[in-house]
Write a structure and sequence with these properties.
Number of strands: 2
Distance between the termini: 78 Å
Radius of gyration: 30 Å
Number of helices: 6
Structural class: alpha+beta
Length: 100
């Protein structure tokens, strides 16, 4: 029974040209366009290292969570490094902001 239905479904498929296109050609064309559009997406979206300055005051010294987080994100050996960190006083931080 399956072979009988399969045979007639194939006959119906090959008689209708639009059905052939939507069944076979469209998925191949769509897959090709998706491959061209998204094949190099990870390489073009690489983040640059961000320069930051942290005011090294008493509040920062007492906050172990912030210190450890910035140390981890600023390690030079880490290939996923996000920050280039410099520790400055409040006056130096204001001068750096004026330069920007």
């Amino acid at each position: 029974m399956f072979i009988h239905n399969f045979k007639y479904a194939l006959k119906t498929l090959f008689r209708d040209r639009m059905l052939i296109f939507w069944t076979f050609a469209f998925p191949i064309i769509l897959g090709t366009f998706f491959n061209m559009a998204f094949s190099n997406i990870e390489n073009s979206e690489k983040l640059d290292i961000i320069d930051i300055a942290i005011v090294d005051n008493e509040e920062f010294e007492n906050s172990e969570v912030w210190k450890k987080s910035f140390e981890t994100l600023s390690e030079e050996e880490n290939e996923d490094r996000l920050f280039h960190t410099q520790y400055v006083t409040e006056e130096e931080a204001k001068q750096l902001l004026r330069k920007w």
